[in-house]
Automatic annotation (TrEMBL):
It comes from the Bacteria. This is TIGR03560 family F420-dependent LLM class oxidoreductase. Gene3D superfamilies: Luciferase-like domain. The keyword Transmembrane helix does not apply. InterPro entries: F420_OxRdatse_Rv1855c_pred, Luciferase-like_dom, Luciferase-like_sf, SsuD_RutA_monooxygenase. Keywords: Flavoprotein, FMN, Monooxygenase, Oxidoreductase. The keyword Repeat does not apply. Residues 5-240 form the Luciferase-like domain. SUPFAM superfamilies: Bacterial luciferase-like. It comes from Pseudonocardia nematodicida. The lineage of its organism: Bacteria, Bacillati, Actinomycetota, Actinomycetes, Pseudonocardiales.
């Protein structure tokens, strides 16, 4: 389950606990400091990983992560340490989702450099090499160094130690046809195909070929998709929750309807190859929405073994 708007910590915690109580597998945050409308004064920016650290202590079962973090926001060595710290705080429930970052106006508003697209991909590639390299060094007890264009690690003898072995799962994804699947093939435990549009199976096939090109078995990675959702037990509930989505792009790909409609949409994503589905929710105060999906949709997904619902 992933909320789509900024909020105070107590609001995010209430949603995460509702997600846990409803039986979902995970609670993931977005990594943003600004909403889609840059002039929206109602957006409440909070740091993604600071919030996840709080949730690590205030939840008990759900896995936690970002879908996905921006590689532009944090230096690689610091990110490796932050994630390892939250992994320890959670008892080994953290996953690292990472992408290039895309929201230029957000970067400008908070004074964060925003390089051109190619350089952001280069930075993401190096960042994943450093993060996973530091985590592996923690297991082997060997010092780690890295000399890249964007990141440099000089003979680190005290790398961060995550709880999970060999390290927290890494998620990489998006719709890019070349570099995204190539980077995911090298580093990711999960490839996220983003919105479950008609070409989702094609994106998974491109990822499979990228794995095969480097000698990796594609079956060693999960495949996930994103599904905006507005589910209701009545037509009035469906209309009210659907209206909150707002964005025409998201509405075009959203599951807006009753529980059976959502079950069918998840089954369609499974048919395209997804084994994990992330549900985007929009009204973070509507905890009855979470309870309805948990009670009326989640049992059907579990019964048909269509995978994890997050």
């Amino acid at each position: 389950m992933e909320p789509r708007h900024g909020a105070r910590y107590d609001e995010i915690l209430a949603l995460a606990r509702a997600t846990e109580a409803a039986g979902f597998d995970a609670f993931f945050r977005s990594d943003h400091l600004m909403g889609v409308d840059p002039r929206d004064p109602a957006y409440r920016p909070t740091d993604c990983w600071t919030t996840l650290g709080g949730l690590a202590r205030d939840t008990r079962r759900v896995r936690l992560g970002a879908l996905v973090g921006a590689a532009t926001f944090r230096e690689a060595g610091l990110l490796a340490t932050i994630v390892a710290s939250v992994d320890e705080m959670s008892g080994g429930r953290v996953e690292l989702g990472l992408g290039t970052g895309w929201y230029e106006r957000e970067h400008a508003a908070f004074g964060i450099p925003f390089p051109p697209t190619g350089r952001r991909f280069d930075r993401l590639d190096e960042q994943l090499a450093v993060v996973t390299g530091l985590w592996r060094a923690a297991r082997t007890g060997t010092p780690f160094s890295f000399d890249g264009e964007h990141h440099r690690i000089d003979d680190n003898h005290s790398p961060p130690h995550p709880v999970q072995t060999p390290h927290p799962p890494v998620i990489v994804g998006g719709t890019g046809p070349k570099r995204t699947p190539a980077i995911a093939a090298r580093y990711a435990d999960e490839f996220n195909g983003a919105l479950g549009r008609g070409d989702l199976a094609d994106r998974y096939a491109v990822f499979d070929r990228a794995c095969e090109a480097i000698g990796r078995d594609p079956a060693t990675a999960r495949r996930s998709a994103v599904l905006p959702v507005a589910c209701g037990a009545s037509a009035a509930e469906v209309e009210r929750r659907g209206a909150v989505i707002g964005s025409e792009l998201m509405r075009a790909h959203a599951a807006i309807g009753g529980p059976q409609h959502l079950v069918d949409r998840i089954a369609g994503l499974a048919d395209s190859g997804a084994d994990t589905v992330y549900l985007h929710v929009y009204d973070i105060h509507d905890l009855d929405h979470i309870a309805l999906i948990g009670a009326e949709v989640l049992p059907h997904v579990a019964a048909t073994e269509e995978g994890a619902l997050r």
